Amino acid sequence: MLYLFLALPFVGAILPALAGNNRNLGASLAALAPLAALTGLLLNAGPIFDGGALVASVPWAPTLGLNLTVRIDGLAFLFAVLVLGIGLLIILYARYYLSARDSMPRFYALLLFFMGAMLGIVVSGNLLMMLVFWELTSIASFLLIGFWSHREDARKGARMALAITGGGGLCLLAGILLLGNIVGSYELDVVLAAGDVIRAHPLYAPMLILVLLGAFTKSAQFPFHFWLPHAMAAPTPVSAYLHSATMVKAGVFLLARLFPALSGTELWTLVVSSAGMATLLIGAYVALFKHDLKGLLAYSTLSHLGLITLLFGFNTPLAAVAAVFHIINHATFKASLFMAAGIIDHETGTRDMRRINGLWKYMPHTAVLAMVAAAAMAGVPLMNGFLSKEMFFAESLHLGLSGIAAWLPPLVATLAGVFSVAYSVRFIHDVFFNGEPIDLPKYPPHEPPRYMKIPVEILVAVCVLVGVAPAWIIAPLLDAAAGATLNGNLPDYSLAVWHGLNLPLMMSVIALVGGLLIYAFRHRLFSLHERLPEVDEKRVFEGLVRMSQGLAWRVTRVFENDSLQDYLRAMLMALVLALFAGLWLSPVDWRLPQMLPVDIPTVALGALLVVAAGVTALWHRKRVFALLLLSVVGLVVSVTFIRFSAPDLALTQLVVEVVTVLLLMLALFFLPDSAALESTARGRVRDAVLSSLVGIGVGAMAWLMMTTDVPRLADWFMAQSVPGGGGTNVVNVILVDFRGFDTFGEITVLAIAALGIYALLRELYLKAPELNGRGRPWAMETHPLILEVVSRPLLSLSLLVSLYIFLRGHNLPGGGFIAGLVTSVALLMQYVANGVSWVQSRIRSHYLAVTGIGLSVALVTGMGSWFFDRPFLTSAHGYLTLPVIGKMHLASALLFDIGVYLTVVGATLLMLSRLGRVSTLDRKRGGH
Amino acid sequence: MELLLSLAIGWLVACGVYLLLRARTFPVVMGLTLITYAVNLFLFASGGITDAGAPVASTDGPWTDPLPQALVLTAIVIGFAMTAYIVILSLRALGDLGDDHVDGDRLPPEDQP
Fold it and tell me: Would you place residue A162 in the very low, low, confident or very high pLDDT band (cuts 50, 70, 90)?
């Protein structure tokens, strides 16, 4: 039931969309969910008034201490009634406030979304769960302030509110995590009962500050108060609802909620009361000088929030009661004032009090309502505001402080009271009297639609009823809420209009008289105020935003300077750091172990490699020469493989070398074959140092790897090769059998690379150079005769060789990879010797298709094993004796190897033959 | 011998990285090729180097470790595919950007917001 209650507003948010353009239906549908929730709540309120609570709990993530606990006690009940009740009135009011251009379903959906989030905060019985809803209200507030998203002030105000409250939310998260850590639970019941443990804990101070930061940002307490006036860019129903009655009360709600757990220390008193006092005074003072109707109300809201905070800061049970009472009163009179301001704005087209004057004549009904509400705000007797303000005055006198400190609270309280009376009087006198209206956009103003005033009337009636007969109207609710706030230790207090002639009454009188006096001399004060330097928090905030943007931009430019070379250098430096840190930190044995003895040929080979690689690097600008030396390096590498008994590798490397050099040669046809010196000497030295460091690091790794004894799998593979894979060439057996899945992945990569190249070469026409590097024109003759003649018989021969290599691969060095590469080289030779068109007219093969078939063969072979209930790529084998070749091993692995072979051939030729065509086409297009 | 091989690997990497840092595409491709050689040798060396025979089970032992060889074999082929891809990419860049600088045509830095 309780979960349904919590879910209702969220579900209800969808309903208004069903109404289409029917505005009355839309508003009614929107009101449905809150009405149902409110009714349900009131019907089940019995136990709450007896001091109990409605609780339901379901574990959500119990290891994190996160339970879905709904807990409605007196305080939560009070807030829930405010949220739902005022929400309902706002829905009715907004129906008439919104113009036809505004999207009503969107507005109501956001409003109900907010309502659900706010309800979630107040009824959460788990602090983590409350935090989730807390963040939701920030988001809802952002969306609602920015509802008129075409207006710049709305967007900026929304962003500011989100930045401040969102930042506070993060602090609150940290604070609550600390709190949960101290207590050992996030459940509210446990936390509230653990006040003594919390206050004695060493982490109490940081935790308290973090939690208070969350509360102060949300409730716009000094120095975070400035977002609230800018949030007034929102539509007035939003201002009335979120930014006076409910959301900004979330902060003070948090103070009330955690009052038994956190309060009672000097730190609490100091921080909370000074923030409250500062906000109270600043808000009350600035409100007087605001010409904008909503601006005045916004600062007055600040001041009242400060008052409530200050009351909690007083740290006494009676002050807490007064605070809760003032929460109720402020919500009622401020929401009605905002709605009245909205009506005036709606009917006159402006909110500037210098232009709105003398509206009494035009809208007397609204004027009466506004006057009553303003009287409540000023604390006039027989209004609800008077009662809570008197409790505030009384509390400020009974703090038990000594010396000057004892004078400060009553003084501040009275001063704030004076200003509060003054701006209330200004609100009434400026708007409804004070001569004739000046230059109104809508003239003459008239009374709003009947139903637009009903919400105001209801709230004003509450103000008066509470003010006149507090003991009957509000006492039970206040008892329940204040009792819950104080965790059951409710002090004796009296709710009466008349307490006799005492000091608080004197203070009230001073405030009233002083306020009237100040208003009477307002013109002199205004000119004084205008001479004061103006602090524009918005400009400071926007400046901060711009500054951080600029900083981010500069930092980004440092790292992202559009130079790939610099990125690469940075990455290599990181690599060097990682390499050397790893070598430094790990226990490494650098002693020279027993090594394999060197022999002269190997040393000579090494020297050749060093020279060839070094010269390649040094003379890279003479490109053809460098390429030739590069191929020397490749040859040395393949000889190295032979030297260390790896015939398969040597074969592969050799053939790949041929293909690579061919490819690079083709590329050089388009690229300039020598390049000018571009880098500076200093840059080259820097790069040389960097690359040497990388080289030293990698060399050291290689050294360590070779000299460290680790267990190897060699013996297992050697022993299992024949019985398990049916072949004696263990390398090939590993490739097509033991690690066949790897190989399958690798040929897939090969095919993908070929496809990528195919795509890159489409529609690519490069301008073929007319001249070579020395300025001579390229020869346009047909291909050399001897090469042509020799290559043709060589083709069949090399195909035969590749077949041989393929077939023997399972037992002796060879196999699909090598055979495929040999075949490719043989065919490429035809391209080189005879030209692309000659070959293409004779071989009508689509290399793309060959690649695909190769991959499919490998895949199907692998899947074949499924039919025998074996895992993917299990191989089976038998023996077959063929003439000439001899006893042959027939294994499913052979089929797989065919797939490898086809993929290699297809991919390689796809890569190279297409490149040949680019140049051919270009030459033909060039007119040759 | 181990020392010789590690020196060779280190040297190949150093030369390759130096070329990788050049401004034009062709030396970058050559540098990558050099690094490919080095990496293949590196992987090969991970099995340790011996004077033992090729890992063919029909011959008499001792044999060298076949596993790194199998890994390097595919690495060679993949390395080739990568080199080919980079070559074609650089040609495409040449065709589309009209320049063989690794950054293509240098764009003017964006205006500060």
Answer: very high
Q: Say yes or no: A907 contacts chain B, CB-CB below 8 A.
A: yes
Q: How many domains does chain A have?
A: 3
Q: Is residue A689 located within the same domain as residue A764?
A: no
A847 in Cβ contact with A909 (< 8 Å): yes
- Which positions 764-783 of A are in contact with B (Cβ < 8 Å)? 764-766
Predicted TM-score (pTM) of the model is 0.65
SS3 state of residue A890:
strand
Yes or no: is domain B2-50+64-97 CATH 1.10.287?
Answer: yes
Instruction: Give domain status of residue A353, yes or no.
Output: yes
CA distance A361 to A365: 10
Give the C-alpha separation, A450 to A456, whole Å: 11
Taking CB atoms and an 8 Å cutoff, what residues of chain A touch B34? 613, 616-617, 630, 633
User: What CA–CA distance (Å, rounded) separates B25 from B29?
Assistant: 6
Residues A498, A450 share a domain: yes
Alpha helices in A349-486 (DSSP H): 364-378, 384-397, 404-432, 450-468, 470-473, 475-485
* A54 phi and psi angles, rounded to 5 deg: -90, 125
Nearest in space to A247 (alpha carbons), one of A334, A311, A173, A314: A334
**B86 in reach of chain A (CB within 8 A):** no
| C-alpha distance from B34 to closest chain A C-alpha (Å) | 8
Nearest CB to A764 within list B5, B48, B92: B92
Measured in angstroms, the CA of A662 and the nearest CA of chain B are apart by: 10
The beta-carbon neighbor of B55 closest among A569, A706, A718 is: A718
Q: What is the ipTM of this complex?
A: 0.90
Confidence band for B112, pLDDT divided at 50, 70 and 90: very low
A422 falls in which pLDDT band (50, 70, 90)? Answer: very high
A586 — alpha (psi -120 to 50), left (phi > 0) or beta? beta
| Distance between A803 CA and the closest CA of chain B, angstroms | 19
Q: How close B43 comes to chain A (CA, Å)?
A: 9
Beta A54-61 vs A877-882: how paired, if at all? unpaired
Closest approach of A613 to chain B, Cα-based (Å): 6
* Rama region for A153: left / alpha / beta (φ>0; ψ in -120 to 50; rest): alpha
* Residue A629 belongs to some domain of the structure: yes
Give mean pLDDT, residues B82-104.
83
pLDDT in tens, A506-518: 888 898 999 888 8
A602 contacts chain B (CB < 8 A): yes
C-alpha A506/C-alpha A417 separation (Å) is 12
* A46, part of any domain: no
Is A270 in the same domain as A310?
A: yes
Range A568-587 average pLDDT: 89
- A647 close contact with B: CB closer than 8 A: yes
Provide the residue ranges of all domains of chain B, joining segments of one domain with +. Answer: 2-50+64-97
Range(s) of the domain holding residue A916: 728-928
Contact assignment for A649 to B44 by CB distance below 8 Å: yes
Nearest C-alpha in A relative to B41: A637
Question: Would you list the DSSP string of A44-61?
Answer: T-HHHHTT--EEEEEEEE
Cβ within 8 Å, pair A766-B84: no
| Same domain? A349 vs A494 | yes
Of A169-178, A686-695, A867-876, the least confident: A867-876
pLDDT band at B113 (very low <50, low <70, confident <90, very high): very low
pLDDT score of A447 more than 80: yes
Q: Which of A24-33, A292-301, A553-562 has the lowest mean pLDDT?
A: A553-562
Domain final residue, candidates A688, A704, A720: A704
Q: Is residue A17 part of a domain?
A: no
DSSP codes of every residue in A673-695: SB----S-HHHHHHHHHHHHHHH
CB contact under 8 A, B77 and A750: yes
